[in-house]
Design a protein that fits this description.
The chain is an alpha+beta fold. It has one domain: Chemotaxis protein chec (3-Layer(aba) Sandwich), CATH 3.40.1550. 36% of the residues lie in helices and 24% in strands. The chain contains 5 helices and 8 strands; from the N terminus they run ββαββααββαββα. The protein has a 6-stranded antiparallel sheet with strand order 1-7-8-4-3-5. A hairpin with a 6-residue loop joins strand 3 and strand 4. 24% of the residues are buried. One of its GO terms (biological process) is negative regulation of DNA-templated transcription initiation. GO terms for molecular function: DNA-binding transcription factor activity; transcription cis-regulatory region binding.
Length: 152
């Protein structure tokens, strides 16, 4: 399984093009299309990115909810309805839609954050603010992270 790791900052040009980090493109290379799925995060002021396979897994999770529930409708709308399939150009760039750029408050730089099965795209200063609070939450809750593999 390929996962998304590390932090990268790349420039966003006036046309909304940004280069997806090479390691992220490599993690996405086994899927059926040459690109990435992106959608607005509903947890943070950023964009989430993932593979088509991960989006299919999220869809299957959503399908387990009552078909007429408000929760299912909300998840279908926010994740599936807002998801956009972006194709890489010859240089590994994608064009971020204006609505996503505005959602994440991105102007001239995009900060890519690997989070395992997904990655996020932030406005760099907004990410640094979030990182401070995330560090504190992780520190306060470090004992809740369980080791499910006893051999490690």
């Amino acid at each position: 399984m390929n996962i998304f790791l590390s932090k990268y900052i790349n420039n966003l040009d006036k046309k909304g093009r940004v280069s997806i980090p090479a390691s992220y493109r490599l993690a996405l290379s086994s899927q059926s299309f040459n690109g990435v799925i992106v959608y607005p995060s509903f947890r943070n002021k950023c964009i989430e990115g993932c593979s088509l396979k991960r989006l299919e897994e999220l869809s299957q999770m959503i399908q387990t909810l009552d078909p007429y529930s408000e929760e299912r409708d909300a998840f279908e709308t926010i994740i599936l309805g807002e998801a956009i399939q972006l194709t890489f150009d010859g240089e590994g760039r994608v064009v971020l839609p204006k609505s996503l750029i505005e959602h994440a408050d991105i102007s001239d730089q995009a900060c890519f954050i690997g989070k395992g099965l997904v990655f996020e795209i932030w406005q760099p200063q907004n990410f640094e603010t979030y990182l401070s609070s995330a560090r504190q939450i992780a520190q306060d809750n470090r004992l809740t992270l369980k080791n499910i593999n006893k051999d490690i």
